[in-house]
Amino acid sequence: MDLAKLLKVAEAAVARGRVVTQTRAVGELTAKGDRDMASEVDFAVEREVRAFLERETPEIGVLGEEEGGATDGTRWVLDPVDGTVNFIHGVPLWAISLGLIHEGRAVAGVIDHPALNTTYVAAEGLGATCNGNAIRGSECTDLTDALVAVGDYAVGPDAEAVNADRLALTQRLYPRVQRLRMIGTAATALTWTANGYFDALIMFSNKPWDTMAGVAICREAGVTVLDLDGTGHAPESRGVFAVADGIREPLQELLGQGL
User: Fold this and answer.
1) Which end of the chain has fewer CB atoms within 10 angstroms, the N or the C?
2) What SS3 string covers 34-89?
3) DSSP conformation class of 221
4) Chain mean position to CA 202
5) Any idea which architecture 3-134 has in CATH?
6) What is the pLDDT along the chain (259 residues), one digit of tens a residue?
7) Distance CA 105, CA 100 (A)
8) Which residues are annotated as a binding site for Mg(2+)?
9) Strand partners, 38
10) Contact between 109 and 214 (Cβ < 8 Å)
11) Paired strand residues for 106
């Protein structure tokens, strides 16, 4: 695969999505479940980006959060607005996330934050950048100095059971790390881990449109990315554990206590 060429296509696709977010109002909300929704902008961005990708790379499938699509093989994975709840409340932490999966691995990603004017780009073997400048992950070696991000709590009918592990992890982490953060967007949390703002990120979910672009960016920035059980991360992984190597071992021990 010519990843350099495909990365340019991804950047152009996401740029088109950015224009949509800047020219359309939130509009009506479509309920997707308990306290989960999509805005008119979510759908509009997905349709714009999907149409562009289908024209430019017809041989590659597209999987979007809102309208589905390809679930195997080489495919683009798109979250048109990651952090919709933030978006509709006017919180500027949300992103357009477009990743590329090839042979069961995240190999490229573009994550754009229109409200923050930052765009993260990476492809396997080509490095990772933010607004064109090379980025590297954290070099933290002491857990007491670590700023650790955790994934959002679940909502829905099974939320209490699903959140049990997340709440237990919070209880294990807060006495050991400098601070915990939950920002409500997986894509942003992954890019901020790639950029060294966060020393680690632990997510108990792994929807490909949420994570694959960020996983590719983290890896190219030198961040180790694993499943929650310490095995290599893949699209079908249970969750995401992105961590600076200097604190991987103690964090992995704390994480493993609840699995």
Assistant:
1) C
2) CCEEEEHHHHHHHHHHHHHHHHHCCCCEEEECCCEECCCCCEEEEEEEECHHHHHC
3) T
4) 12
5) 2-Layer Sandwich (3.30)
6) 899 999 999 999 999 999 999 998 888 888 776 667 788 999 999 999 999 999 999 999 999 998 999 899 999 999 999 999 999 999 999 999 999 999 999 999 999 999 999 999 999 999 999 999 999 999 999 999 999 999 998 888 788 888 998 899 999 999 999 999 999 999 999 999 999 999 999 999 999 999 999 999 999 999 999 999 999 999 999 999 999 999 999 999 998 875 5
7) 8
8) 65, 79, 82, 210
9) 30
10) yes
11) 101
CATH topology of domain 143-257: D-Maltodextrin-Binding Protein; domain 2 (3.40.190)
For the annotated binding site, the residues are 65, 79, 82, 210
Q: Which amino acid is at 83?
A: G
| Domain ranges within the chain, ordered by starting residue | 3-134, 143-257
Amino acid at the residue 42: D
Q: Which amino acid is at 99?
A: G
